[in-house]
Amino acid sequence: MSDIWDEFQRSVDEWQEKDDIERLELFELLEEGFAFQETEPEASFVLFTKMRDEARRLNEGKWLLLAETYRLVALTCYVADYTRALPLAIDLMVRFNSSDGLTHPFRGVGLSNALLVYTCVDPFGYQDEIERGFAYVRKHISDELESTRFLIDEVQMYCLESMERWGEAYDIGVRSLSKVLQIEDRNWYGSSILNRLCPICHALGHSDELAGHAEYLSELAHQAEHLRRMEANAWLWLATVQRGRGDEREASRSFRRSVRILKSVERRDWICSDSMAAYHEANGDWKEAVAVRDREITALANRGMHHRVCQAHVERCRLLKKLGVLANSDLAAARVATSCVRSPEWFLNKLDRIERNGTA
After folding, report:
1. pLDDT of the chain, 360 residues: tens digit per residue
2. Alpha carbon distance 357, 176 (integer Å)
3. Rounded to whole angstroms, how far apart are CA atoms 18 and 57?
4. What number of CA atoms fall less than 13 Å from residue 318's CA on the CB side?
5. C-alpha 347: how far from its chain's center?
6. Is the Cβ–Cβ distance between 309 and 297 less than 8 Å?
7. SS (H, E, C) 196-209
8. pTM for the complete prediction?
9. For residues 39 and 266, is the Cβ–Cβ distance under 8 A?
10. 360 near 354, Cβ under 8 Å?
């Protein structure tokens, strides 16, 4: 099986033989950028930007495009600033379809992250473009690059999950998981697929399967670098299942373990908001679940994640309805949030149903 890093590792080996300190700095900047992804995500973006600038100065075209790809990864997966990510995603889609980009090892990574941007901004408004994009990358990315295929699976699962197409997302996840467990680097890619399967199983009511996935995710993520947010998410989903079964002691233990992990991770107010809210809901603690959504909405302000913000407002209104304190101002704020997406009808219909009978 080919690996997307093979060509870059050969470059590093060659530079080491020649003692080319200037070019070796490109690799050092890349590793430094990875190191900060959970604790100081903005620092990762700065380091990848410096790597881009150095690659341009040294006329290292492949490393330049690699740096641009990781600048996008930093904005989408680390910083979560889709306002800045959108123009970069558009630029990379053009560059990966140029003569130099067509043969670049990270073409699939760049295009997949561009599709992630459109998903987080507005999956319904860009649905046609997103579906064409996934069809394109699946057709044109080599089957030898299995690691890229797993990334495409993960992003498409998230897209389907965002539109509540749970069955389709589940099918992709189960199929991908069966393949990822056969490869050597299963910790990283397996964690990513399991992290997407957990909320899908929760939505489908597959509690036993959710518990198994969450437990396995906690093991894999604990063994891999820079996956603390996924490990925290795993313990929260496990706590949710345990609380739902009435095992409050184990649920509390799993919850506390997740909180300890999250203390060292940036974006803690929203990266695990679904599992955190589900944990509180499992015990009927609607006020705490509302507080989770309040923190999420505040943390996502001005980040361009319009779809996610709308989802959080809808969930907040549903919880307030359960508490019997849903006010017109809450509904109005949620409806204002939907003005940022191209197709607000999906959310507006949910809000109407909540107002009438308390369910979305």
Report:
1. 357 888 999 999 999 999 999 999 999 999 999 999 988 999 999 999 999 999 999 999 999 999 999 999 999 999 999 999 999 999 999 999 998 899 899 999 999 999 999 999 999 999 999 999 999 998 887 655 667 889 999 999 999 999 999 999 999 999 999 998 888 778 888 999 999 999 999 999 999 999 999 999 999 999 987 899 999 999 999 999 999 999 999 999 999 999 999 988 877 778 899 999 999 999 999 999 999 999 999 999 999 999 999 999 999 999 999 999 999 999 999 999 999 999 999 999 999 999 998 777
2. 38
3. 19
4. 20
5. 21
6. yes
7. HHHHHHHHHCCHHH
8. 0.91
9. yes
10. yes
**CA nearest neighbour of 193 among 178, 212, 211:** 178
- 26 contacts: CB under 8 Å, gap ≥ 6: 51, 54, 55, 58, 60, 63, 67
Q: At 316, which amino acid appears?
A: R
The DSSP-derived string for 298-322 is HHTTTSS-HHHHHHHHHHHHHHHHH
Interatomic CA distance for residues 285 and 248, integer angstroms: 13
* 102 C-beta neighbours (distance < 10 Å), count: 10
